Give the backbone structure.
Amino acid sequence: MSLRLYNTLSGQVEELKPQPGKPLGMYACGPTVYDYGHIGNFRTFIHVDILRRFLKLEGVPLRHVMNITDVDDKIMAKAAAAGQSIGDYTAKYEAAFLEDLKALGIEQPEYLARATENISLMVGLVEKLVERGCAYRGENGSYYFRIASFPGYGKLSKKDLAGMEDGARVDVDEYDKDSARDFALWKAAKPDEFHWDTELGPGRPGWHIECSAMATAYLGETFDLHTGGEDLMFPHHENEIAQSESASGKTFARHWMHIRFLLVEGKKMSKSLGNFYTLRDLLLRGYKASAIRFLLTAVPYRNQLNFTFEGLTEATNAVERLRTFAQRMRTGEFPAGSDASILEATQRAGKNFIASLEDDLNTAEARAAIFELVRLANSSADRGELKQDNIAPILEVLAKFDQVFAVLEDHDDAVTRFALDWAAKENRLNEATPELVAGYSLSPEAIDKLVEERTQARKARNFAHADAIRKELAEKGILLEDSADGVRWHRK
Ligand code: AMP
Ligand code: ZN
């Protein structure tokens, strides 16, 4: 395996490989669990999943850690407004996040690390930084990292920090991305504010310190790869490097992967522009989880992806095309023997698929290799040239494709049903399309029964009844496909 991955730190595409005899250690910045995840968040998590699945396909053992930020300014404010403890407030959104990962076929990392369960690690790290002269206590009782003490500050984001003012401070978790300031490691509690009582005094950790403390605890002072969306490069990741390397005197992460932002209809996603979508919003509009996943990998992670509904419809059709092809390969009847040119094309597709992913995870090229095979094999089958012995190698390539892209196996029905149940519980069924609600009033078993009734009606030449059943199903968004091997139904 020779995966070449762009490294933000060096500015070059470099080989990513574990240290001899060790699993590849990777730390992925996870969600802040104050609300439902949006499709931009999931673009980042899906590309990390593509990397994860590809490494597994290539036989690389992994130790993948993701943090859950379950305390920060926003969470504190929202929990207080809801009159809830932060634990109760975040539990709902953490559970929703994990459900969304599952819905999108994103594998869970080996370790999930919650900030609130690792406070003592963070306190220890702040104390170490104070001892080393890299952190100080402000008059308000908060602790700050002195960025002037770390000459490497700016090496990841390549920011020119010439105008930096020693001692200028910032207290909030989210701040001006253009200026470098001493940042809070530990925030002293204001009166009546939720806090932990620690050696640093009553307070809570700043945002950046959790990733330094937990990455080191799970992966050691130096580890292989750190990932996140491009917005995290500065200041979050820059601050993680400053804290960790000041404490250990060693390189923190060797390799940094940043996923470019998702735009929606050409614009930054925001609630005020009305172009802000969570996964659940799209599911209730009748889009399938597989199509959403597939769309989010349409261009490689370092290119900007512009989400459009047209694109989502295309992705829906593309997944359907792949599934129909896989079904044809699995159940079709082909003459004995092997067609040499198809065998050769299959091997080429398999090679190109792997080579594209090895080339900085080029998902677009990897997908193109598979669609080329689908096109060739379909037309060869139409001409009667595709032979029995061509099938196994084709299915093998498809299996590899699906180990990484995870869209062929059809879980869409269960996911949409889950979203509808959730919407019903949350009193949000009005956000679902009427067709979807009608369609899901039928269970898969009930649909199977109606399909069987139609088949019997046709056998009995009662075409009026058969057509009425087809029409009833179509009105509920359920389409039937008659083939030599029987009737397949799928939701539109
Ligand atoms: P958050 O929950 O805001 O901490 O974000 C979780 C992850 O999603 C981080 O890695 C962010 O960088 C990433 N992210 C946020 N917005 C977008 C976006 N529009 N496109 C891609 N990734 C994003
Ligand atoms: Zn982080």
Summary: The chain is about 45% helix and 15% strand. The domain at 267-405 is CATH 1.10.730.10 (Isoleucyl-tRNA Synthetase; Domain 1). The first strand starts at residue 4 and ends at 7. The first helix runs from residue 39 to 57.
